[in-house]
Design goal:
The complex is a heterodimer of chains A (358) and B (318). By secondary structure, chain A is mainly α. Chain A has a single domain, classed as MetI-like (MetI-like fold, Orthogonal Bundle), CATH 1.10.3720. Helices cover 66% and strands 1% of the residues of chain A. Chain A contains 13 helices and two strands. A two-stranded antiparallel sheet of chain A has the order 1-2. In chain A, α7 crosses α9. The longest helix of chain A has 37 residues. The model of chain A has no long low-confidence stretch (mean pLDDT 80). Chain B is of the alpha/beta class. Chain B folds into two domains: 227 residues, 3-Layer(aba) Sandwich (Rossmann fold), CATH 3.40.50; 66 residues, no CATH class. In chain B, 31% of the residues lie in helices and 23% in strands. Chain B is built from eleven helices and twelve strands. In chain B, the strands form two sheets. An eight-stranded mixed sheet of chain B has the order 6-7-8-3-9-10-12-11, with helices on both faces. A four-stranded antiparallel sheet of chain B has the order 2-1-4-5. In chain B, α3 crosses α4, α3 packs parallel to α5 and α4 packs across α5. The chains are: A mainly alpha (358), B alpha/beta (318).
Chain lengths: 358, 318
């Protein structure tokens, strides 16, 4: 085709579909090369992060979540009140600082300020026991987030190990392990949670000063309750995913190459479950936060005076008609956290699942 | 005659089908024997579900065979030495889409056999070996850092072939390596298989259902029906003068690119369905659909017998 002469082509007939070659230009080497070039390739992780950062919802959620985390870390250092402190003015209890509206001061405080004193504003007002409400919400968010993250990690670890053994081993092992899961699944969740949290709160005792004691028995018992109950869903999910991945030819190919079962699980199966693991962990956090709020709402969660978003909402219920903002703040906080975690989870799934690549 | 490279004797692969407490045995492969010489290709054809793929997988012990013996270069393959034998016997898979891990780069996919068998001293050597393999199968060096989903079917199959070649095997089971590909790509890949055979001296068991493809690449062809080999012969001889009635009907179904010849040709259309491998007919498995079936066929199972010139047929009447 190299020395093909355009002029020697038979002339185009009227109405024929023959292409008129004289109207075409030869492709230069540079243009030919452009056909060969594929998109720039990056590593799996970089590629995923790039796509995640392109997702505006996910980025916005990450910013919101980061902001919330920063606030709950920084705020207790700046705000001079503590979550259990009843407000005082000049060492005297300020009885007027009850159920204040946001950014208002009680009469005592106004006097104090008029005399040249400095008073940190009550950003979210105060509660019925004259405590600064903002710092209580901040601590409540702390508790909720800590419970959410740790509970999900516990659930993830137990569920992943159990699920991958069950899925990979298959056969009778799988049958037995899944019946155990069914058994736990069939128990009424709430009843078990309530019973366990009552039992654990009484049974657990820690040496004072230890890390666990700092967390408080209630929190630890809550982790254990989540760990004991909610891993079943994760185990089922991961088992189902492994069952389908196991049937792929690349697992067979790895076997035919001579790879050991451990390296097959590590190198082929778990990385391919990654999207399921990420998405279900990200969705586990809000569900744990919900459950924690619920437990605190019915009075089984963290112990007073330690606040949690659920117990704050419960307390706000009593004066709902007079002080609706007291329900709005913790409820808004739960919404923000849960929504942003869900959106991040979705973004992660879109970013890290190569099958969804467009 | 020299000792064959791969020798399969009476290979059996039964799968248990549990039906409540009763266990039925699905006889996917029921007593298959054949030999493959070094740098030779044996084609294995048959319709879907006749056990071609299972033969390949049982040979490599991807399934634990129920019975029979596979010998490679004089050594019998057992459970204990299979790890070493995997360096000698490799496999190319049918589906180039599911046989490559979507989370791994091409370099890691091809390098995996090298990792498993510790075939390199350092990272640089591994990289070099992978690039060399990629060059052999016609992939560019800058493809190494890419993921499998970035490639076309033909390129993916090349990656799969490079993975099989990584350990420098003497024998490769090609499990329908071209049936998932475009016809134009099929030709490229088949030519590459032939080039690699000439260069590296590997032997192939080439499983396919396209008789023309198999005839092109194979020295000898074995025809399978319901887990048994019914005819083995030299490729051209089998295609020109098939003896077994099943092979005859298979060949009569091969499309001919000339409509004039195709119109005059008489097609042998088989009646009925393939019997379930769970309930095999007695005697010859093909007798239920065979035009020549007699009483003897129902009573006794015919063995492969030599009809002269290394042409083996398992039939009472032919």
């Amino acid at each position: 085709m190299e020395n093909y002469d355009v002029n020697k082509m038979p002339k185009k007939q009227f109405l024929s579909a023959q292409i008129d070659l004289s109207k075409f230009e030869k492709a230069t080497d540079e243009e030919k090369q452009q056909q060969d070039i594929m998109g720039e390739s990056t590593t799996f992780f970089k590629d995923g992060m790039k796509k995640l950062l392109k997702n505006p919802l996910a980025v916005a959620s990450m910013i919101v979540l980061l902001f919330v985390i920063t606030v709950i870390i920084v705020a207790p250092m700046i705000v001079p009140y503590s979550y259990e402190e009843i407000l005082t003015v000049n060492g005297k209890r300020d009885k007027g600082a009850k159920n204040l509206k946001p950014f208002t001061y009680s009469k005592e405080e106004q006097k104090f300020i008029a005399n040249g004193g400095e008073r940190f504003p009550h950003i979210m007002g105060t509660d019925e026991q004259c405590r600064d409400y903002f710092i209580r919400v901040v601590y409540g968010t702390r508790v909720s987030l800590i419970v959410g993250f740790f509970a999900s990690i516990i659930v993830l670890i137990i569920g992943m190990i159990y699920g991958s053994i069950s899925g990979y081993a298959g056969g009778r092992v799988d049958l037995f392990m899944m019946r155990v899961v069914d058994l736990i699944y069939s128990l009424p969740d709430m009843l078990v949670i309530i019973l366990l949290s009552v039992v654990f709160t009484n049974v657990l005792s820690f040496k004072s000063g230890s890390f666990l004691a700092a967390l408080g028995t209630n929190m630890v018992s809550m982790f254990m309750v989540f760990g004991l109950l909610y891993w079943v869903t994760m185990a089922r999910l991961i088992r189902a995913e492994i069952l389908s991945i196991k049937e792929n030819d690349y697992i067979l190919a790895a076997k035919s190459v001579g790879a050991s079962p451990v390296s097959i699980i590590k190198k082929h199966i778990l990385p391919n479950c990654l999207s399921v693991i990420i998405i279900s962990t990200a969705l586990q956090i809000p569900s744990a936060i919900f459950t924690e709020s619920y437990l605190s709402f019915v009075g089984l969660g963290v112990q007073a005076p330690m606040p949690s978003l659920g117990s704050l909402a419960n307390a706000a219920r009593e004066g709902l008609q007079s002080y609706p903002y007291k329900l709005v703040f913790p409820a808004l906080m739960i919404c923000l956290i849960v929504l942003s975690l869900n959106l991040i989870g979705d973004g992660l799934r879109d970013a890290f699942d190569p099958k969804l690549k467009r | 005659m020299a000792e064959p490279l791969v020798k399969v004797e009476d290979l059996k692969q039964y799968f248990p089908i549990r039906n409540g407490l009763k266990v039925n045995w699905l006889k996917a492969v029921d007593g298959v024997s054949f030999e493959i010489n070094a740098s030779e290709t044996l084609g294995l054809v048959g319709e879907s579900g006749c056990g071609k793929t299972t033969v390949g997988r049982s040979m490599l012990r991807l399934y634990e065979p129920t019975g029979g013996k596979v010998t490679f270069d004089g050594t019998e393959i057992t459970k204990s030495n299979i790890q070493q034998m995997r360096k000698e016997m490799q496999m190319v898979f049918q589906d180039p889409y599911s046989s490559l891990d979507p989370r791994m780069t091409v370099e890691d996919i091809i390098g995996e056999p090298l990792d498993v068998h510790h075939l390199y001293a350092n990272k640089a050597e591994r990289h070099e070996k992978v690039l060399d393999l990629m060059d052999q199968v016609g992939l560019k060096a800058d493809h190494a850092a890419r993921y499998a989903h970035e490639f076309s079917g033909g390129q993916r199959q090349r990656i799969g072939i490079a993975r099989a070649l990584a350990v420098n095997p003497g024998f490769i089971v090609c499990d329908e390596p071209v049936s998932a590909l475009d016809v134009s790509i099929q030709a490229q890949v088949i030519n590459m298989f032939e080039e690699l055979q000439n260069k590296l001296g590997v032997a192939y068991l080439f499983i396919a259902h396209d008789l023309l493809v198999v005839r092109h690449i194979s020295k000898r062809i074995a025809v399978m029906y319901l887990g048994r080999i019914v005819e083995v012969a030299d490729a051209d001889e089998l295609c020109d003068e098939p003896q077994h009635p099943y092979s005859q009907s298979l060949l009569s179904a091969v499309p001919i690119p000339d409509p004039k010849i195709a119109r005059e040709r008489k097609r042998i259309v088989l009646e009925g369905d393939v019997p379930s491998p769970l309930h095999m007919p007695s005697g010859c498995p093909f007798r239920t659909r065979c035009r020549y079936a007699t009483e003897k066929c129902a009573l006794e199972r015919p063995e492969l017998t030599d009809r002269g010139g290394d042409h083996f047929v398992a039939c009472w009447n032919k």
